[in-house]
Design a protein that fits this description.
The protein is an alpha/beta fold. The protein has ten helices and eleven strands. A hairpin with a 4-residue loop joins strand 1 and strand 2. Helix 1 crosses helix 2, helix 1 packs across helix 4 and helix 2 packs across helix 3. The chain is elongated. It starts with 10 loop residues before the first helix and ends in a 5-residue tail after the last helix.
Length: 300
């Protein structure tokens, strides 16, 4: 049993309390809920009697919640929202469960999205919901079953499934490339484009080329998609995961700015919380994802 019945007001009473708090009057709440003012008053009175606590301060102009009721209605509002969301999910997929994934925008668009049709075909009972997050978050406060993570195994309280190793390449518009780029020095004087999620990317790349340099400056972007377009249009040299620029290099929209040793800034992982029971949709997704990885070429 979740809680004693006497501590669980009816949904209609909670809706009335929430509406009065938000709208400030019984008449406004009644209009929104398609009830009469007297029905709203009865719902509030019934809740006060059930809980044994005064909830409403009544004045001639407005109905105001007591300070304690103000705190209570915040929790009630969040619970009503969660219940409504759960009902929508149930209606959208009555035969199975939902899988809520946090994705990285570029990785999700270029690597994951093309593969999801296969998962949907194999698991029609699972509805996959995708939402973008650029940085780590708390699984206890965010509604995700799992997340795609880039970098190191530095997300506490999660399980890890390695997806792939990322290699980065310096690329630029062909018009920006010198006719004879025989020395890496040309890059130190070129306009370098930076991505927020890898703030030391260029420094690490130059170090791997045996040419360490500090204090690099330039335009900063929050997403690769925008930075790719800026690079194509000649705004500077960008450092990109190889899978993101492979097509643009092939069709000549971009050119490799320096052919040096391969550099990795991290790995991609699927992560999911250790403290939560693993849902059946997540089990199905992980099993499918492992199959995709086993079938992929080793360089992917």
């Amino acid at each position: 049993m979740i809680a004693p019945r006497r501590f669980l007001p009816s949904i209609s009473s909670l809706l009335a309390l929430e509406a009065v708090d938000r709208l400030g009057s019984a008449s406004a709440a009644a209009e929104e809920l398609s009830l009469t003012q007297s029905a709203i008053s009865r719902q509030l009175k019934a809740m006060e009697e059930q809980l044994g606590v005064e909830l409403i301060q009544r004045t001639q102009m407005r109905l105001n919640l007591t300070p304690a009721a103000k705190d209570y209605v915040q929790t009630a509002r969040a619970s009503l929202h969660q219940l409504a969301q759960a009902s929508l999910k149930l209606k959208a997929n009555p035969a199975g469960g939902s899988l809520h994934l946090s994705i990285l925008p570029a990785f999700g668009m270029h690597w994951l999205a093309p593969k999801l049709q296969d998962f949907a075909r194999r698991h029609p009972e699972v509805t996959v919901n995708l939402n973008t997050r650029l940085r780590r978050f708390d699984f206890d406060t965010e509604p995700f079953d799992a997340a795609f993570h880039f970098g190191q195994q530095n997300w506490s309280g999660v399980n890890y499934m390695q997806i792939m190793h990322e290699e980065v390449l310096p690329v630029c518009a062909p018009t920006l490339l010198p006719e004879r780029a025989e020395s890496i020095d040309w890059l130190t004087n070129a306009p370098l484009l930076h991505i927020e999620t890898r703030p030391d990317g260029w420094e690490r790349w130059f170090t791997a080329q045996g040419h360490p340099i500090k204090g690099l400056q330039g335009m900063v972007f929050d997403q690769f998609s925008t930075m790719i377009q800026a690079t194509i249009h000649g705004l500077g040299v960008g450092l990109f995961p190889s899978y993101l620029v492979a097509e643009d290099l092939k069709n000549g929209r971009l050119a490799q700015a320096w052919d040096g040793p391969e550099v990795s800034l991290g790995d991609y992982y699927l992560v999911w919380p250790k403290g939560k029971a693993e849902s059946e949709p997540l089990k199905s997704f992980r099993k499918w994802l492992q199959t995709q990885l086993d079938q992929a070429p080793k360089h992917s």
